[in-house]
Automatic annotation (TrEMBL):
Keywords: ATP-binding, Nucleotide-binding, Transport
InterPro entries found in the cross-reference section: AAA+_ATPase, ABC_transporter-like_ATP-bd, P-loop_NTPase
Species of origin: Persicirhabdus sediminis
Protein name as catalogued: ABC transporter ATP-binding protein
Pfam families: ABC_tran
Any one GO MF annotation of this record: ATP binding
CDD domains for the chain: ABC_DR_subfamily_A
Length: 326
């Protein structure tokens, strides 16, 4: 069964098509990463799914309930973690969560139990008396997650939960997300940190200019257009790394992807290892003192950037419409 089902969703802001006819399903119990550049349409989509905005067209079902027909029922199934918590001043962590628990209808002992459960899970007990609007980013995200979990939702929608977190807090968040997935919750999570999403998610949904451009597991993205993507090599040289940049700029079949302290990362066109061998020979011939030259795997960032590049190219050179039969 699909916990989230989206069909032909549109959302326009005046002439801007922020969400342009997207369709996708997220199976119950899976973790789906939602990826796209700034302004691609992630937050707009997630806000509609969370019943905070209306689509112009299309259908969304959460746990098989239509969000337009029965939004109140959908809200009982959903936990929403926005990218900005919208905190209140003069409220401790305890008061903040207690306020939301009361709003959700928890009473008496049941409310205390539920508050303790979510605070155990998010490790907030030591912060109960702290002002909720004066927490660090990592603590704030834990509070936001605790709030989203209060009603034990089946579906969790998280907009950029890892943004601004230090590496330790990101690892902790990743661990909590995996625990929630193991409990059988369905999670849709947006992030710019692709390497982390790849590890955490069962599948990834890529959106660009309001359209879904890829949906699959992280390997399917890495292999997408792989043949045309070229082979990547980490090159280390003695001396100034700029000499590798200058060499790459004048060499056919070679593109410098990233300059590094002792050299850089280059892409050699196609998937012909013999060509890569010639490239290495040319480097030595041209006087570069190469100390390392080894093949690197494409990561999700490379795959995503390649995909965006090929989309831009396709938009710049659209296939002309077929001529009518004479
Ligand atoms: N309320 C609004 N009024 C007008 N335009 C909007 C509104 N909300 C979003 N947009 C526009 O819609 C487009 C999609 O925005 P959205 O916030 O969904 O992108 P995003 O993928 O979440 O980006 P980011 O990663 O930067 O958060 C952007 O061009 C944005 O400026």
């Amino acid at each position: 069964m699909n916990a989230i089902s989206v069909k032909n969703l549109h959302r326009n802001f005046a002439a801007l098509k922020a969400v342009d006819g997207i369709s996708f399903d997220v199976p119950a119990g899976s973790v789906c990463g939602f990826v796209g550049a700034n302004g691609a349409g992630k937050t707009t989509t997630m806000r509609i799914l969370a019943t905070l905005d209306y689509p112009d067209e299309g259908e969304v079902r959460i746990c098989d309930i239509d969000i337009m027909d029965r939004p109140d029922e959908v809200r009982k199934k959903l936990g929403w973690m926005p990218d900005d918590i919208g905190n209140y001043s003069n409220m401790t962590v305890w008061e903040y969560l207690d306020f939301y628990a009361r709003a959700l209808g928890y009473k008496g002992e049941e409310r205390q139990e539920r508050l303790n459960e979510v605070m155990d899970f998010t490790d907030l007990h030591t912060l109960v008396d702290r002002d909720s609007d004066k927490l660090s980013k990592g603590m704030t995200q834990r509070l936001c997650l605790a709030r989203a979990l209060l009603q034990d939702p089946e579906v969790l929608i998280m907009d950029e939960p890892a943004a601004g977190l230090d590496p330790k807090a990101r690892v902790e968040l990743k661990h909590l997300i995996r625990l929630l997935a193991d409990e059988g919750k369905t999670i849709l999570i947006s992030s710019h940190i692709l390497s982390e999403l790849g590890e955490m998610c069962d599948h990834l949904l890529f959106i660009n200019s309001g359209k879904i451009v890829h949906h699959g597991d992280s390997d399917s993205l890495k292999n997408h257009n792989n043949k045309d993507a070229g082979l990547l090599y980490d090159v280390q040289i003695l001396g100034d790394p700029q000499s590798l940049c200058d060499w790459a700029a004048t060499s056919p079949y070679v593109e410098l992807i990233e300059s590094r302290k002792h050299g850089g990362r280059i892409k050699v066109e196609g998937d012909d290892k013999a060509l890569a061998a010639r490239v290495l020979a040319n480097m030595l011939r041209d006087g570069l003192e190469v100390t390392e030259f080894h093949r690197e795997q494409r990561n999700l960032e490379d795959a995503f950037i390649d995909m965006l590049g090929s989309l831009e190219e396709a938009n710049a050179n659209p296939i002309p419409p077929a001529l009518p039969n004479s």
